[in-house]
């Protein structure tokens, strides 16, 4: 990951080939003492794990993709859970035939580049477990 630009409320980072985006965003959060953020990004990945949340079973169902995909859109937020950054991202991805897949991004390894813009928030957003949904919901 490379920091390209940073102010008090904005940052632009580039993830390079082989970088795990979720891990890099977590590292960025710790290294730059980010309280919380929203983000969006584009680029290309070569390995991807998407998840779909089965609300009835209260569990994620994962699907792995091991092919070059365009990151058409990836957006999310950064909050805190159990004193660790929690990156919550969703994305839409396109293959070489322009077929789209999308879902909750569990893992995304960059194949060419990933360009991400972060809106930094000067307030710590936390997550708390919710029994009704089985999810760690965002709180103020």
Outline:
Pfam families: PCC. The chain contains one helix and nine strands; from the N terminus they run E-E-H-E-E-E-E-E-E-E.
Q: What keyword list fits this structure?
A:
single chain, 140 residues, mainly beta, 60s Ribosomal Protein L30, Chain: A, 1 helix, 8% helix
Identify the CATH class.
Alpha Beta
Number of helices: 1
CATH names the topology as: 60s Ribosomal Protein L30, Chain: A
Question: Number of DSSP strands?
Answer: 9
| Rounded radius of gyration (Å) | 15 Å
Protein name: PPC domain-containing protein
Domain PPC: 5-140
Organism: Candidatus Zambryskibacteria bacterium CG10_big_fil_rev_8_21_14_0_10_42_12
Pfam family, one: PCC
Structure overview:
The protein is flat, with a radius of gyration of 15 Å. The protein is 8% helix and 67% strand. The protein has a single domain (2-139), classed as 60s Ribosomal Protein L30, Chain: A (2-Layer Sandwich). With 140 residues, the chain is mainly beta. Residues 5-140 form the PPC domain. This is PPC domain-containing protein.
């Amino acid at each position: 990951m490379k920091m390209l630009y940073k102010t008090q409320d904005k940052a632009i980072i580039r993830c390079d080939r082989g970088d795990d985006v979720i891990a890099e965003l977590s590292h960025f959060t710790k290294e730059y003492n980010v309280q919380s953020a929203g983000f969006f990004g584009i680029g290309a990945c070569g390995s991807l794990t998407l998840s779909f949340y089965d609300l009835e079973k209260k569990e994620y169902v994962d699907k792995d993709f091991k092919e070059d995909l365009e990151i058409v859109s990836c957006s999310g937020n950064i909050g805190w859970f159990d004193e660790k950054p929690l990156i919550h991202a969703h994305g839409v991805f396109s293959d070489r035939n322009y077929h789209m897949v999308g879902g909750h991004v569990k893992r995304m390894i960059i194949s060419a580049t990933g360009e991400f813009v972060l809106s930094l928030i000067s307030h710590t957003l936390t997550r708390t477990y919710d029994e009704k949904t089985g999810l760690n919901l965002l709180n103020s």
